[in-house]
Amino acid sequence: MTIRIPEEEVSGVKVRTITALIAAGAFIVGCGSSSSSSTTSSATTSAAASSGGASKSCAISIGMEGPLTGPVAVLGQEQLAFAQLAVKDDNAANGTHISLVQGDTQLNPAQATTVTQQFISNPKIVAVVGPAGSQEVLATGPLFGRAGLAFISGSATNTTLTNGKNPTFFRVVSRDDVQGPEDARYVVAHLKPKALMIVDDQEAYSTGLVSSMIPVFKSAGISVDHESVSQKVTDFSSLVAKVTPNTTVVVLPWQVAANGQQFGKNLAEQHKKAVIFGTDGLQSSSFTIPGSYVSAFGPDIKAIPADASIAAAAAQVYPKYGTFGPPVYAATHVIDQAIASVCKSGQTPTRANVLAAIKSTDEPTSILGQPIKFDAHGDLVGAKWFLFKINNQGKYVLVTNT
Amino acid sequence: MHFFVQELVNGLTQGSLYALIALGYSMVYGVLKLLNFAHGDLYMVGAFIGYFVIQWFGGSTALSVPVPLVLLVMFLLAGGGVGALGVAIERFAYRPLRDAPRIAPLITALGVSFLLENTMLLLFGASYRDYNTSAFIPFSTGIHVGPLDIDLARIMVIALSVILMISLTLIVSRTALGKQMRAVASDREAAEMLGINVDYTIAATFFLGSALAGIAGVMSGLVFNEIYNLMGFLAGLKAFTAAVVGGIGSIPGAMLGGMVIGLAESFVTGYISSTYTNLIVFGILIVMMLVRPQGLLGRVPLEKV
Amino acid sequence: MSTKGEEPPVTTDRPESAAVGVDEWVARSVDRREYAPGWRGDAQRLWGRVGWWPRLAVAALIGAAVPLLTVNDFQLQVGINALLLALLALGLNISVGWAGLLDLGYVAFYGFGAYSFALLSSNQIGGGVHLSAALSLPIVAVAAACLGLLVGLPSRRLIGDYLAIITLFFGEAFVEFTNNVAPSTLGGPNGIVAIDPIKVLGQQITTNKGYFYLLLILLVATVAALHLLDTSRTGRAWRAVRDDPLAAGLMTIPVNRVKLMAFSFGAVVAALAGTVFAAQQISVFPTDFDTPFLILIYAALILGGAGSIGGAVLGGLLLSVMLDGFLRSPTQSGYLFYGVILLTLIVKLRPWRRLAAVLVGTVAFGFAVHAIAKAISANAVAGGPQSGGWIANAVHDWVVVPANATRAGNIGFVLLLCLVIALVQVKGRWRTILLVPTLYLAACVWEGRLVAVPAITRQLLIGAILIVMMNARPQGLLGSKRVEVV
Predict the structure, then answer these.
(1) What secondary structure does DSSP assign to B16-52, as a single string?
(2) C221 touching B, CB under 8 A?
(3) Same domain, yes or no, for C336 and C286?
(4) Is A63 part of any domain?
């Protein structure tokens, strides 16, 4: 029987001393430099000047909160790319020096709270783009409200967000309670299914839409099979096997287009004739099943002539963009214009005057193909939703928009 | 009836993939008593390697060489590449911790997992990549008997998995290397004293296990088309579950465990409800574990007192 | 065996008395430790002489002083997150560190505590249940204890990794349950919002500062309670069960009951942490309690040293401060990156001549490469460091960042990983030589690519830190290497 004896613990002392020194030094450094802001300029703008000629050069920061890593990084990175593009374009157009500070929430409300606190404590940040998810807005709304910091989301569609509890919240997309029933009514009127399957992806966005659509289907006498899969699932064969011959429509209010594509492939594989009706997330070059319908809160900017230059620039930075990027571009643009107007009037941008400027936004046109004006609760006035059908070449064709 | 067979085939496909990954898990666990949480990410790397092979040969719609050659190259490169990566990870991250308490390499494996996932995110971006298998293995091939539709890709996946599993079992039970692996798994110190090159054996184990995971990744891409940098997380968890449910350290057990989980998921989704699939499958597995605490094919561990 | 007064003292290491169940020679290993020379040894001896309770008081005072040093709410939030993680690591320590049971569903207890508190303090159930904290906290604690017993029941039949799987199921099932089942009661993916703040002594706690102090008090109380537990019969029973369940059973320790107690106590600690979390966040969602957070708790515990109270707390505090306080800020990530590399070099490279050679060599190498690259093509250095700040300005003429920074950065990153792996393989002089280009490449990749994507870099750094720290000190910062009988 052998006994193994631990080595001398002297090296442990060294580690401890060093750890203590690191921690102490870090703390001092942390305290020292947290009170001054930490900004990351986007690749093209130079370091922000922080004193003196601030109102002249309009050097200020805005925050961007989104799921930059984690399970839905595909959406967050697209949003980030468009936000950076908007800042770059607006800095060039208005002569401002706005820089973008990123915050990664991984679509997790607790992390969103931490990131929001970080932005609030950074005095150079006067407005925030994001967060992306409705849960995160629910979690961070009170914080933003207390700090008087404006935040515009390009993808949070939950109806309750604009019921007056979040005075500094705005959004540039339509709401679940508008989009859901409208989509459902279109399906009933034009696709006339006898039975349909509706699958949610267990996220707040999806379940919200589903709960507003099912009553419309049920009252039209359609038999509804309500299923549910997690966003992380990548194979839907078991679900597709449940699609009966009577089921002519499958409604997929999903956020991840690639999942929709795979669902469509599974349908083809099992020779099911059902048509996919998807929303929002499915509007992307990753989803190209011919004959499908996609209802989105963002337009196809490739089809809007005025957006040609933006579309070209976006294709360079993030080729496979879909529906989540353009609204964030619009949101960032609103903030940039607000800051520019404050600077033009000779004031230094603060949270209060930027908030007021955003409230009085009145853009006649935007990347979304419609004017931007906010109502009293922060919703976009006349927010449209867009319905596309995918033709046999995999191209999106606008069917209608309201 | 055809619905049953359809769900059966779905379950077998999914189950074979879980089984392949679980095999690698079990092998590494048997030899090192290490829960390699980075194993699922090796599967993801394999899937990406396969994707880039397709792109190299011209893309899914315009392959410049015959499809069997593309498949062969994909499997070889993924298997070899991921195997080598596994050996490198073992050498770099796990070997210094071989004598540490069992729980320490767990965290290192997590660190490796973070590194792998986010390196892929850094290098290739967040967009999902699509194998678009139906462009070069059309749906029209395969078995289409009446209302039953089984795609050729799925048949290939199931067949190849079975072949690989049988080969692995043969390697472990018949070859000298296999004997060394079993010896090291049983008692590393004694094996070393008997002249077995433990470092080499462990490296070989990692190579085989990781190669299997890499090949499983390619297969996953072929059947499920979309790959992204976090696909290994869930697969790794499921494979870990499969390995334990089947009896950890037992290779046939890992295969059985993977099949059981794949079939359970498929049938529960098909016959009960997709909303509660995970909960019900967990329930089934808990009951199985309580009925047979050492796993399906695990041996009751003998304790030397 | 016994010594009389006149005889000279026995100088061998024989134990003077045989205490049952203790190997004296092993236990005395602490006494035989060499103290470091000089002031460090004096400090160690002084620290050892101070009792446990005064040490706790000192730590509590330091903790209480922290909010006075912070300047804004974000730093307090980081502190709150750190205290929460420390609490959770403490609770996990009971199952994993003391009792040796791998509990992979621990985060579900945290979620249970948060959701229970949320249900009892909001408008979610019926017309709205708004129990005061004095009522709801004990209810939650008792319920969590029962839940811990329930989850621990399989431990009667299952051991080791098999038990781990069951607890993993439980953890996953909790998230599924709260997300998909009974959305009108549990809120579904939209969670529960508008949770009442905790009321203590008539005062509602609504600020970050308040919750920081509440958590600090909770942490100190938990540490004290766990210390008492640790030095009691129960603690000894846990350690016995961890080291050898069969022998423990033979020594009349009720193994099953002891295991259940471990689960129970851990669950109570987690649930209490969960209630404060819910109150501070004012809302709870299922995704707050998913598996990645469990991984974080494990990392905190093992980095700090499983089996040690101080280790669990230190691990939780350090990891959380690093993740939220440092790595969320690009400039501070830079400090961390450069700082840790330099520190490692200083510690590992002996003698100082070698260290000086490497540092000077790296600087010279860098300027040389920069000059050569500039001479070859202006494009090769056209992209500058991708961030602002004084470090970037300082290294502007030192690092090589081509115009196409992304592509070059990616290639450089992969090359860097290969070089680091190679560094581990080679030894001696080649290692020193290889260090120079590796360090330079690291700086180039950092300035050229990694600072432009702070979110991804954060995750990469977390992974790297976990690997490096576990390799450097496998038993954790304050863990002790255990004697293994082979």
Answers:
(1) HHHHHHHHHHHHHHHHH----TTHHHHHHHHHHHHHH
(2) no
(3) no
(4) yes
- Which residue type sits at A239? L
Contact A323, A296 (CB under 8 A): yes
Q: Are residues C322 and C359 in the same domain?
A: no
Give contacts of A262 with chain B, Cβ < 8 Å: 224-226
- Residue C244: how many other CB atoms lie within 10 Å: 15
Q: Rounded mean pLDDT of C91-113?
A: 92
Q: Which of C326, C346, C362 is the last residue of a domain?
A: C326
Question: Is A401 inside a domain boundary?
Answer: no
Query: What pLDDT, on a 0 to 100 scale, did the predictor assign at position A18?
Result: 53
* Contact between B303 and C169 using a beta-carbon 8 Å cutoff: no
Which stretches in chain B have pLDDT values below 50? none
- Chain C residues touching residue B282 (CB < 8 angstroms): 169, 172-173, 176
Interface of C with A in 337-366 (CB under 8 A): 339-340, 343, 347
Confidence class for position C246, pLDDT limits 50, 70, 90 = confident
Cβ neighbours, 10 Å, residue C66: 17
**pLDDT per position as a tens digit, A124-150:** 999 999 899 888 999 999 999 999 999
What sign results for the dihedral spanned by CA atoms B87, B88, B89, B94? positive
Q: How far is C417 from chain B (nearest CA, A)?
A: 10
Distance CA C460, CA B222 (A): 29
> Could you tell me the two tokens for A118?
């970080």
Write down the ipTM of this complex. Answer: 0.89
Confidence at residue C272, expressed as pLDDT on a 0 to 100 scale: 95
Which residues of chain A register pLDDT less than 70?
Answer: 1-57, 400-402
Based on the fold, state whether residues A278 and A309 are members of the same structural domain.
no
Q: Which residues of C touch A139 (CB under 8 A)?
A: 193, 281-283, 285
pLDDT confidence of residue C22: 67
Comparing CA positions, the residue from C385, C345, C476, C66 lying closest to residue A30 is C66
Q: Does C233 touch chain B (CB under 8 A)?
A: no
